[in-house]
Amino acid sequence: MWRFNYISSFLICLLFLIGSSSFAQRNLAKGNRLFDMGQYERAIPFFEKEVNNSEPLIKIEAITKIADCYRLLGNFELAEKTIKMLLVKVGEKRRCIIMV
Predict the structure, then answer these.
(1) Tens-digit pLDDT profile for residues 20-63
(2) For residues 50 and 62, what is the distance between their CA atoms, to the nearest angstrom?
(3) 86-89 long-range CB contacts below 8 Å, 24 or more apart?
């Protein structure tokens, strides 16, 4: 009985992690589609969802895309602020090249 509960608990946790990861990827994919269509203002909220809910590489991609959106919209102050936030998230120990 204990073994069954352990296995079922493990499977439920695994399904939750897979489901939340694919949900996060849907937000990123939707934001990328809008970005590719030039709808930068509409793409930003989808990327912002990823900043708080994702694994580190997706988080970095989302923050970079937000900065690109602001830059392409001509809001250079917010683009700069977002890039600074990215550098804080990445950390001082890592080097990051951002093409602006």
Answers:
(1) 445 557 899 999 999 999 999 999 999 999 888 767 888 889 99
(2) 6
(3) 86/60, 89/56, 89/59, 89/60, 89/63
3-state secondary structure of 99: coil
* Integer angstrom CA distances of residue 91 from 20, 83, 85: 25, 12, 10
d(CA 36, CA 65): 11
- CATH code linked to domain 16-90: 1.25.40.10
- The count of other CB atoms within 10 Å of the CB of residue 72 is 13
What H or E segment, with its residue span, contains residue 27?
helix 2-36
Q: Left if phi > 0, otherwise alpha if psi is -120 to 50, otherwise beta: which for 38?
A: left
Q: Which letter does DSSP use for residue 96 in this model?
A: -
